[in-house]
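Render Citrate synthase in 3D.
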Amino acid sequence: MLALRPATSAAWLAAAAAAARPSFLPARVGPSFRRGPRACASTKAHHCLKSRLKELIPEKQAQVKYVRTTFGDKSLGETTVDMVYGGMRGIKGLIWEGSLLDAEEGIRFRGYTIPECQKLLPKADGGEEPLPEGLFWLLLTGEVATKDQVKSLSAEWAARSAIPSFVEELLDRCPSTLHPMSQFSIAVNALQHDSAFARAYQTGIHKSEYWDYTYEDSMDLIAKLPNIAARIYRNVYKDGKVASVNPDLDYAANLTRLLGFDVNSKFVELMRLYLTIHADHEGGNVSAHTTHLVGSALSDPYLSFAAGLNGLAGPLHGLANQEVLRWIMKMKEELGTTEVNAASIKEYLWKTLKSGQVVPGYGHAVLRRTDPRYLCQREFAMKHLPNDPLFRLVSQIYEVAPGVLTEHGKTKNPYPNVDAHSGILLQHYGFVEQEFYTVLFGVSRALGVLSQLIWDRALGMPLERYGLVSRLPASR
């Protein structure tokens, strides 16, 4: 058996997939699976996207079969005791189609970096940021959609966006003191009442059809999330009145409209960027892995995603940008009339570290440079809100913190991650309800985890079950 170090195993697997490509398959399969746009016969996104996926599935199935037959007995790396006790960090145990995290370049969506996605993915008329619809198309097919395909997908989601009256009533009856994420999970679970997959499974459909019904449920669920999120927001923080979906608007613009913000403001552009960059981050994080794990039991997309949302609600996962914002606000309060400069920020950073706390928004388990998702948000702020006081403070922290953290010596990555910036952008545009930020994260994350769930069913991924160790050697 060939043993490989974990650091090299991902690259080896990609190379093996390329080498294993059967001669009868087109060059699109494997690491070059990402390709340019391909026109579809139908002008409707539902049929166009689904028919394209239907073409890709047999190719991918053949590739997986060949790789497993040829390389199935090869090792992806060594598992140590520390890995097991350390939350399985570093163990290679999951196939994830949509994204891969590179230590130097950050997240890649189907091989494309964040800057490449910003450049290549379709944008709204007059817009500068990529549309989330384009990223979903990319995650699902590995291909860059045309502008017309993305517009059709926007219209398709708008057409599917209505939520059942009983779900509306359920949300309206929730006390305003119930956390928005709890309400979000309740609503998604309730939508399971109309699951196409659950109904079809009860009739005894063939497993080769699982992906079809998973696709239908996933499309319905993604389409309904802005309506659900907005109803929660308007009930908890506003007057309870929710606008209707505009079929002529894109996904992020409709979310903005439903929340009650001006669709002609730059906040719409921020939402397009936010939903795109938060959509997927490999499959090992809690929300992504939980969705996959629950889905492996053939739970439908509603039950699977609701489970993922419950994981996202945890303070170690989806609450990070709130903690960053609280830390920054506390810094402003404690510094008071003290001039905020490099010296005072440095002193406050050391005070945080010496008290046994971490500096929120800094460091990353994999990345060894500044998170590209932080950088694209910084670029957005420099363009649209350069004089915002909170942005200027975040910029000052960015100049000082890496040096302090390097000197402190307890982090492998002293640079900011995505959470160090997102909160202050939302605050600038009047989105000040911090408890709701994780709901926005959840709307975005659906694009990544549900596109993968469709592929899980298409590739016949089995019930997930780990081996375990229960007997430990006696201590001396």
